[in-house]
Design a protein that fits this description.
By secondary structure, this protein is mostly beta strands. The protein contains no helices and eleven strands. The chain is 0% helix and 51% strand. Strands 2, 4, 5, 6, 9, 10 and 11 form a seven-stranded mixed beta sheet that branches. A four-stranded antiparallel beta sheet has the order 1-3-8-7, with no helix packed on it. The model has no long low-confidence stretch (mean pLDDT 94).
Length: 127
Amino acid sequence: QVRLVESGGGLVRAGGSLRLSCAASGRTFYAMGWFRQAPGKEREFVAATRWADISTHYEHYADSVKGRFTISRDNAKNTVLLQMNSLKPEDTAVYYCAADPWVIAAHVMDPTKYDTWGQGTQVTVSS
């Protein structure tokens, strides 16, 4: 079946690091990204990667995480990673992996453009 499985969440102190992983199965996704949602807050775009071909790819980041988070993809393993450094308490949320066979650049921040979602992994950053 088509599915996404996230892992790597946990509890860290401010300034620490975590690496999230999203493993996809069932089909090839050319757009994969991360969204997060804190209690009482709207779902927020974090980062995404798009592949046009085997040698051309594009990365997108929310302003709030630029310089701290890095998204990467291992196409051989059909897995996307999110390296999170210099974590802040404001980063606390459930992080969801999202994927779609094709998403254009103008739509990467729109969660309604992704047709497949993982179950989420909790990230908690203490002050």
